[in-house]
Specification:
- By secondary structure, this protein is mainly α.
- It has one domain.
- The chain has seven helices and two strands; from the N terminus they run ααααααββα.
- A two-stranded antiparallel ribbon has the order 1-2.
- Helix 1 packs parallel to helix 6 and helix 6 runs antiparallel to helix 7.
- The longest helix has 26 residues.
- The radius of gyration is 18 Å and the shape is globular.
């Protein structure tokens, strides 16, 4: 059995970052969503993440819990920075603040985000196959695909314009899921 503690540094970041990248990629796969569509897709994605915290595969469950814990730590660090600004003095803090300022309010790049999700997914699954148990790599890949499929199907899309029919999964979303399936190796 593969344990999350078997990975550190960039390897751990790849494994923990891939699910969020897939969520973001699926949301942006057919362009920038409207507010209602975005809300439906994020709600669907959150549901898949909550379900994963009770997943039958121990590794997938540990990744979902690890992501939850990492978000809590980030929230606590942000709250500390607000409460005690002097604690954020230094080169690393300045670099992080500069990066946040550069990306805040920036419009997302749908093509770039979907490509990043596919690349990160492929790297994370390959890492698991190389250093972990194959059944954990398969379960992790299936979970990533489930995230993409659930988010893509959460809000219907119009194909072709104003008077066109609504489809459950758009062509852009289907293409993203197909690329993701190839990256997972399924």
């Amino acid at each position: 059995m593969t344990n999350l503690s078997d990975f550190t540094g960039d390897d751990l970041d790849q494994i923990l970052d891939a699910p969020g990248a897939v969520l973001k990629g699926a949301t942006l796969a057919d362009g920038r969503p409207g507010a209602f569509q975005f809300l439906k897709e994020m709600t669907s994605g959150a549901k898949v993440f909550r379900e994963a915290q009770e997943h039958e595969n121990d590794f997938v469950r540990s990744v979902a819990i690890g992501m939850r814990d990492r978000l809590k730590e980030q929230d606590a660090a942000e709250a500390e920075a607000v409460a005690n600004p002097a604690s954020q003095v230094g080169v690393a803090a300045a670099a992080a603040a500069t990066e946040r300022a550069a990306t805040e309010g920036a419009r997302p790049d749908p093509e770039g985000e979907t490509a990043r999700a596919v690349e990160l997914t492929g790297a994370a699954v390959a890492l698991l196959r190389a250093r972990g148990d194959e059944k954990d790599a398969v379960a992790y890949g299936e979970w990533l695909l489930r995230i993409a499929e659930q988010v893509a199907g959460a809000a219907g899309s119009k194909e072709g314009g104003f008077f066109s029919r609504r489809v459950k999964v758009s062509a852009g979303e289907r293409a993203f899921i197909d690329r993701l399936t190839t990256a997972v190796g399924g």
